[in-house]
């Protein structure tokens, strides 16, 4: 259950799972602490999302190395 | 006792009046910061951002037990509530045809001299430092507004595996960004 905290913070759980995780969060101090640690991370990923909206017309490029 | 709302206990004659006042207090406490935060995700669409804040605070009021948490945890929780409302809204509003994929990470951080492009570049660099498996699940879920289940289907791996990889990938990303001195 604990590893759901990342998916929860990012908001990518299905509705049912999201609600189940919230109930878990109510009593799990470990997940509460991780929620605090990860709370700003989605904003940092949003920097990428926002930056991408200006380069939609560019050809796709593989990111494999 | 609830740090935000506890002092209101017992002061109201009707439940409606109390509810109204509690929501007003939530607005006072979190409304401004939340609006500033949400506006960044709505592309500065103020009306949409205000709607998101309102829905977030109404949901918070309905789950008032969580308002007994300490304020920093309430804030973190409110951000997740607001984020889901924005993502749901974006899915509904999306005018971009489904078959058009967003650009890959290498495309996402073209520097244009702004702070925003700079931090996007730092995040893109950190993503590239992750293992391919970790990077892939972050790209296929959050960066594409997809749920765990949707990403699992696309990647052909079990949802539990996506969830677990996402957890370790996000933790690794967090460590990398902390090492690079990115606030968060």
From TrEMBL, chain A:
The keyword Acetylation does not apply. InterPro entries: Anti_sigma_zinc_sf (IPR041916), Znf_put (IPR027383). Residues 6-32 form the Putative zinc-finger domain. Keywords: Transcription, Transcription regulation. The keyword rRNA-binding does not apply. Residues 44-65 are annotated as: Disordered. It holds the Pfam family zf-HC2. This is Putative zinc-finger domain-containing protein.
């Amino acid at each position: 259950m604990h590893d759901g905290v990342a998916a929860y913070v990012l908001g990518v759980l299905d509705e049912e799972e999201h609600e189940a995780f919230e109930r878990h969060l109510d009593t799990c101090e470990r997940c509460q602490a991780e929620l605090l640690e990860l709370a700003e991370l989605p904003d940092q990923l949003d920097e990428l999302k926002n930056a991408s909206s200006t380069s939609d017309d560019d050809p796709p490029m593989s990111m494999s190395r | 006792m609830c740090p935000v709302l506890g002092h209101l206990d017992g002061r109201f004659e009707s439940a409606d009046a109390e509810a109204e006042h509690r929501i007003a207090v939530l607005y006072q406490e979190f409304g401004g910061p939340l609006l500033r935060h949400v506006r960044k995700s709505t592309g500065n669409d103020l009306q949409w951002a205000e709607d998101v804040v309102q829905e977030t605070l109404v949901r918070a009021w309905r789950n008032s037990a969580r308002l007994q948490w300490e304020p920093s945890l309430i804030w973190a929780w409110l951000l997740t509530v607001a984020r889901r409302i924005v993502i749901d809204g974006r899915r509904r509003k999306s005018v971009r045809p489904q078959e058009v994929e967003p650009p890959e990470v290498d495309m996402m951080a073209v520097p244009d001299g702004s702070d925003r492009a700079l931090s996007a570049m730092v995040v893109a660099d950190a993503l590239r430092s992750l293992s391919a498996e970790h990077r892939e699940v972050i790209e296929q879920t959050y960066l594409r507004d997809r749920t765990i289940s949707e990403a699992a289907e696309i990647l052909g791996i079990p949802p539990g595996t996506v969830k677990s990889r996402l957890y370790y990938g996000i933790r690794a990303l967090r460590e990398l960004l902390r090492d690079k001195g990115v606030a968060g």
